[in-house]
Amino acid sequence: IRFNARCLAAKATASRVTLELENQNVPFSADLVLACDGVRSAVRDNTGVKVRRREAGEAYLRCVADIVHPTPDRIGEYWNIDGRRAGAFPLTQKRTYVFCSVPLGHWKQILATDLDRWIRSWDDFGEPVTSLVRAIDWNAAVYDELADVRVDRWYRDRVVLVGDAAHAMTPNLGQGANSAMTDALVLINLLKPANGDWMRAAARYEKIRKPFVTRIQD
What we know:
Distance between the termini: 36 Å
Largest sheet: 5 strands, antiparallel
Strand order of the largest sheet: 6-7-8-5-9
Shape: elongated
Radius of gyration: 20 Å
Low-confidence stretches: none
Helix content: 25-40%
Number of strands: 11
Strand content: 25-35%
Order of helices and strands: EEEEHEEEEHHHEEEHHH
């Protein structure tokens, strides 16, 4: 396991794949690479796979509030008639996972100059949102602009795509992580008996998983 070594690029030959890693002087090479590096996959984008990215036109923040969920009977997602959404789900250690919509492209400005007003703007949601937005360190929030990713193929040149690298989908479908874990389970069970014939295993993996995931995205 190499920590602090984000993959910047991948170069494949007939027999090996070489990865360029951040903060690592020596490249890393392998017989086969599973690209599990997300919607903006550097490994995928160096393979020549054709990628179609559809922007959803929405942005969200993901964060953790250091308090217990205030109203356990209202766990879930909350909508407002103006289109805003929020969600809250209990975590361990008396914390709560929170997500909420934010104006597309405006989070840095809000965080720098208008955070107090923005927090108060959630008061019309009532509990649990009112308490949760006041218990969050907004500097630690993760900002994401939602997108749907489709690729023409899930494997090429000793690289096999898994999860969001192959099929990122909007999170309100609730199937992104589930689909990624199923990808991994199917692929590993196909690679094990393939006796080194990774291409046959990868082709079978794509044939099984791609139609299923595409239906979910559609």
